[in-house]
Known about the structure:
This protein is of the alpha+beta class and 353 residues long.
Amino acid sequence: MTKQSPITPAALSSRAQVSAPYDMVAEQFCAFAQQIGLQAEDSDEGVSIRFRLGQINLSGTAVQTQVELTSESASSLQLLRDLVAERMTEAGLTPEWSTKAVSSQPANMSMTTVVEVRPLTPSYTRVVIEGPDLARFDEGGFHFRLLFGPEGAGWPYLDNAGITQWPGGSKAWHRPVYTTRSIETQPDGLTRIAFDVFLHDGGRVTEWCRSLTVGTQMAVTGPGGGRGAVPAAWVCLIGDETAVPVIARMLKDLPETTKGAAVLFVPDAGDIQDLPHPRDVQIEWKLRGGDATPLGSLQDAILPNQDRFVFFAAERKEVIAARGYLIDNGLDKGEFQCAAYWTDEDMEKRDER
Ligand SMILES: Cc1cc2nc3c(=O)[nH]c(=O)nc-3n(C[C@H](O)[C@H](O)[C@H](O)COP(=O)(O)OP(=O)(O)OC[C@H]3O[C@@H](n4cnc5c(N)ncnc54)[C@H](O)[C@@H]3O)c2cc1C
């Protein structure tokens, strides 16, 4: 453990008490932190662990542990509280939360209504959802999850302790990630989010889109993930079909002076869209069916030595290879982001045999 620097006060917090020795609880959380590549830090009163969602502070005595969670948004605080509750339950501990939930809806979840569904191009359907509390999706990361539960199950809710309960068990829920392609708050105060679904065989979201009608209710959680390309004079954005929406957003937000290239893979010439982008970022659309792959495009790219940023999003295995390629070519952690957007389950099953 290292001695930590002072903690910036976060906007929101939750507290709980656990009837268990501080040393035992701290040891379990420190081991968990280590497992996921985080380092616990000594604080004046005990120990702290910083997650992307916020911070867990533990202190206490030989018989009792105090848990304090701090986070910058109600949505992240909810996720942190759920995470702590899950770890405590696994360890056979029952935290007593002093801050009670004010609503039965998890703070990171919103109920929405589908207000538009239409074919965007041959391989994509555009869906627009609307809700009264979606404005936060304009401030956090670019992404959110759709929630598909077991047939007939209700939506997730908060129990008396303020912990998210998943009807049928959390493992029974399918929670695919999508990208907010655009977001706008209407004069009536309702916010609309548009997202583009790449249609593919066997996809549960593809099936949902096929029978989707205006007025359908859908729960979403988020926002999550990053907010696009790290500022650099030169960028290279490479993505497969699922990354077209995020690269479209990144291109739109880049400063006009940015130079570089974007390579996007789609199955059909009709999927090519006119995307606003800085003049000196060259966009190349590649059609599936030939020899070109996202990984091959990365290997063909000529990267400058400095002031550069590479974004690569595609199938999991290709992403692992891309990350290895960039590290081998001397890029530092802050100079690239490689994100697995989907997993080819058929390929994984073939590999297991
Ligand atoms: C940060 C992030 C942002 C994303 N944004 C978008 C987005 O805006 N639009 C979008 O369309 N997708 C996006 N994705 C990808 C999407 O979440 C996955 O494709 C997801 O698996 C789709 O769920 P599903 O229910 O359709 O299929 P699943 O039920 O997850 O999978 C069913 C079958 O389909 C296969 N499969 C899954 N995805 C694909 C694919 N792309 N091509 C071929 N076969 C596939 C699986 O291997 C499995 O066999 C994003 C993913 C991430 C991580």
